[in-house]
Write a structure and sequence with these properties.
Largest sheet: 7 strands, mixed
CATH superfamily: Vaccinia Virus protein VP39
CATH class: Alpha Beta
Order of helices and strands: HHEHEHEEHEHEEHEE
Strand order of the largest sheet: 3-2-1-4-5-9-8
């Protein structure tokens, strides 16, 4: 099973080849999130698109109450074996009525159509008032590259790049209108590594 998961990992996580590397990478992210006060022990966090637990596993070890969601059964099974409360994306309705202090969705929304992403964000907004997410935007790229994708984003509502998988690139100026509104009241950029992180809030 480990070999199959690592084969999948090389597709969904660029530059990471082993589960051990993933653990190190995720721990660094969680340490930084703790340092910056984004998360803290004792809070309830919904990790949407949790994958192989890059963030879920080290967050839980840090005393955070994690509920993970992913569309793949093999990843769900891996998380469950690591004692992470996990649901398949198709079963997200099972957590309706619960409340989470925050949700995170790291490198998730760019790999789906805008309509699908908006539906997921709507569901997330039903269980929390705070969402941290990362997504590629035009400003993240060098000027020449960015200009090309700015034009495509204007024409298509999101550009596609990469040979191995679909990935949407959004415009910074219209990200709220395109993706988040009306499910959260506002979004603000968050300076966090070079990740293109945003915070969506209600209230």
């Amino acid at each position: 099973m480990k070999d199959e998961l690592e084969k999948t990992l090389r597709v969904v996580a660029a530059g990471i080849d082993t589960l051990k590397e993933l653990d190190v990478y995720g721990q660094r992210w969680v340490d930084k999130m703790l340092e910056d006060g984004i998360i803290e022990p004792g809070i309830k966090v919904l990790d949407y698109g949790a994958g192989l637990g890059r963030l879920s596993i080290p967050m839980q070890k840090a005393g955070i109450l994690v509920t993970a969601v992913d569309r793949r059964r093999d990843m769900r099974d891996y998380l469950v074996k690591n004692d992470i409360r996990t649901f398949l994306a198709e079963d997200l309705k099972k957590i309706e009525g619960e409340y989470f202090d925050m949700a995170i969705a790291m490198y998730v929304f760019q790999h789906m159509s805008r309509d699908v992403a908006r539906e997921i964000i709507r569901q997330i907004a039903n269980v929390t008032h705070l969402l941290y997410f990362t997504i590629p935007t035009v400003s993240m790229f060098p000027d020449g590259f960015g200009k090309t994708y700015r034009r495509e984003a204007e024409e298509k509502g999101g550009a596609i790049y990469g040979e191995s998988e679909r990935s949407m690139v959004y415009q910074d100026e219209t990200l709220y209108e395109d993706l988040i509104k009306p499910y959260f009241n506002k979004i603000t950029p968050v300076k966090f590594k070079n990740a293109g992180m945003w915070k969506a809030t209600n209230g």
